[in-house]
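To whoever is on call:

I kicked off a structure prediction for a single chain this morning and the downstream step that reads the tokens threw a length-mismatch warning. I double-checked the sequence; it's 144 residues and nothing unusual in it as far as I can see. Pasting both halves so you can look.
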Amino acid sequence: MKPKTRRQFAAAIIAAGAFAAGAAAAQTWRCGNSYSDRPCDNGRLIDTDDARSKAQQHDAGAAARRNAKVADTLAQDRQRLEAAAPRGPAVVAMPSDATPAPAPKRSEAPKTPKRSKTRTRQPPEYFTARDPLWKPKAKASSRP
């Protein structure tokens, strides 16, 4: 039987892939932090059977379908809002009592700050930790 739509064709491909994957992935090995379908050094065989009941599996499928439906609705809402939004640059209205600042002339170069004639102290190339509360001891006098 030939599929009539792309959706039916995609469903047939997915079903065939799931069937092939189910037959091929009979064993799953945990190799450290990754999983593989082939044994590895120090690997453990993992049980991958679904232990949920049919009712639990049905409930999980129903929840997934509800979530997909809500996601589609939200996507349609977002697309509708984006289509209704105005295109182009945003315009911000200036209050009527405000006067705009004059634009700078192109011929004027931006002013650079003047350097002081005194040299500024450069920080040392190395770091020395100092205790701000420490005071040096008075030197002992050499008087007899």
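Update from on-call: the warning came from a stale cache, not from the record. Cleared it. Sanity check on the structure: The CA atoms of residues 47 and 56 lie 19 Å apart.
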